[in-house]
Amino acid sequence: MKIITLGNTGIQTAELGFGAMYLPRVSFKKAEHIIKRALELGITYFDTAAAYQDSEEKLGSALASAPVSVVIASRSMAYKMGVDAFRQEFEQSLRRLRRERIDFYGFHAVNQPPDLANVLAGPLDFLREQQEQGKVRHIAITGHNPVTLREALQRGAFAMAMFPFNVIEQEPLHGLFDTAREKGVATSIMKPLAGGVLEHKALALRFFFSFCAGVITPGMASVEEVEKNVHIFEERRQLTASEQQQLEEEAAALGKEFCRRCSYCMPCEQGIMIPFVHMIHMKCWGKPMDDEVAYTLQLGKRMLPALEQCTACGKCVEKCPYNIPTPQRVRELVGLLKSASDSPHFP
Fold first, then answer.
1. 255 domain residue, yes or no
2. Nearest Cα to Cα of residue 102 among 136, 69, 77
3. Cβ(126)–Cβ(153) below 8 Å
4. Assuming Cys at both sites, which of 35, 56, 141, 346 could form a disulfide with 62, CB separation 3.0 to 4.6 Å?
5. Residue 332: which domain range?
6. Is 170 a domain residue?
7. 119 and 180, same domain (yes or no)
């Protein structure tokens, strides 16, 4: 695989990184098998976060005896609750990852100006102190808003920025990448598959071979995914014109207002599984009733009592980095589920 240098840090790593967001779906034993296979195939960059349930623990266990060339990045959202909360989560990350020093540690989901203000109010100084003590090599920042991230990078305080970039979300091309290069900031790409909604996954990953985007970190939770992704990055074939068109047509059909399954909206006070709502809505809303749509609605039927409890409080919209209109989609799904019972396709 291609080896890249992460900004001005001097750290080198394979272009394909390992996103550990989905490790909570598998057991410790399976996670260890997946991670060690990734190492065998040349992956050296591993990305996680304190919010990803037991992801840090699984990485820490599997990488305890890994070579020093392995690079680990993690982050915390606790800065939104003040310095003390952020300190506690940072110390927890060190314990979980079994590390005396974390290569990149930073701030998770810095999406709006108030989030950046919270970072600058004290947590950033705390991380600088940890850097001086040798517990952090470099300070990172992540977010979904290119405007906020660009403003953050202009301050010169961050060595790495992580953000979404894919065939659908190409806004970083309009300034954020330029600012990162000007400041010598490493870039790490989250959601290269747009949260997993892109069907042509190989094409979606090959999309990156036309850019110098940094380290690409798709979430992986099986050996098969690791092996397929490594194969794509080893071949490194750029998209043909027809493949590019195929990918762009899929992106156009999805639009911008779709759920990336980050679960920042959770938990819902009414017990609604919001990402599941969006999955069913995407597969069924506006589609002609057939056996596949009916089957998907049947899966969602058990959610109806909870969906009917939605108060449209709007908290999910506030927490969503993309401001997806969840209450509206809940209402639409309730109506769809009730009307579907009259269809001959619906059992």
1. no
2. 136
3. no
4. 35
5. 274-340
6. yes
7. yes
Give the count of domains, the chain.
2
C-alpha span between 261 and 221 (Å, rounded) = 15
What is the β-pairing status of strands 12-14 and 18-19?
Answer: unpaired
- CATH number for the domain that contains residue 166: 3.20.20.100
Give tens-digit pLDDT for 109-128: 998 899 999 999 999 999 99
Q: Residues 169, 318: one domain? A: no
- Smallest CA-to-CA distance from 150 within 174, 125, 124, 132 is with 174
Structure-block tokens of residue 146:
């290119």
190: nearest Cα among 18, 13, 9: 18
Write down the residue that tokens 């890249």 correspond to: 4
Other CB atoms within 10 A of residue 286 CB: 8
For residue 196, give the 3-state DSSP assignment.
helix
Vertex 65: Cα angle to 61 and 70 (nearest 5): 95
Same domain membership, residue 300 and residue 231: no
Of 192, 225, 243, the domain-final residue:
243
148 vs 127: CA distance, rounded Å: 20
Handedness of CA 240, 243, 249, 255 (dihedral sign): negative
CB 39 within 8 A of CB 52: no
**Mean pLDDT value across the chain:** 92
Residue 267 within a domain: no
Both tokens of 315, joined, read: 């908290």
pLDDT digits (tens, 9 = 90+) for 138-174: 999 999 999 999 999 999 999 999 999 999 999 999 9
Both 154 and 239 in a single domain? Answer: yes
Q: Which residues lie across from 190 on neighbouring strands?
A: 164
Same domain, yes or no, for 210 and 287? Answer: no
Domain endpoint, select from 220, 243, 266 = 243
Question: What are the residue ranges of helices labelled H in the chain?
Answer: 28-40, 55-62, 83-97, 113-120, 123-132, 146-154, 176-183, 201-206, 223-235, 241-254, 274-284, 291-300, 304-307, 315-319, 326-340
Question: Does the N-terminal peptide bond of residue 267 adopt cis geometry, omega within 30 degrees of 0?
Answer: yes
The answer to whether residues 295 and 216 belong to one domain is: no
CB 190 within 8 A of CB 142: yes
